[in-house]
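User: Quick sanity check before I run a bigger batch. Here is a single chain. Can you write out its predicted 3D structure?
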Amino acid sequence: MNNLKFLRKNLGLTQAEVAQFLKVSKQTYCHYEKGRYEPDISTLKKLADFFECSIDYLVNHRIRDITRTPESTPLQKSLCADILSFDEEDCMRVEAFMEGLKSTRKEQKQKSKFKEGEI
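Assistant: Done. Predicted structure follows.
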């Protein structure tokens, strides 16, 4: 349950604060983060609601399902929230920056294919 620690720290919370929300001891919550104990399904649901993520994300479960939209990471959610707070001019700057990143990524892929003899 490595994602628990990441999510908690990303929100600037202490183990005691999350434990209080779950109505468990700090020690029990600490064991959840370290993988010594596994929370029951009810606790997993509370954690998923609290951190606004899926239970799959909490338990590091990944499935390959091309019909399913991948879940946003906490960092992606944070970036989206930041962008929503920008004015139009700032959004245009972000858009230009992103286009530069896409172009660089495309060039790198083409160079990689060339080196591997695919082109």
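The first helix runs from residue 2 to 10.

User: Great, the batch can go ahead then.
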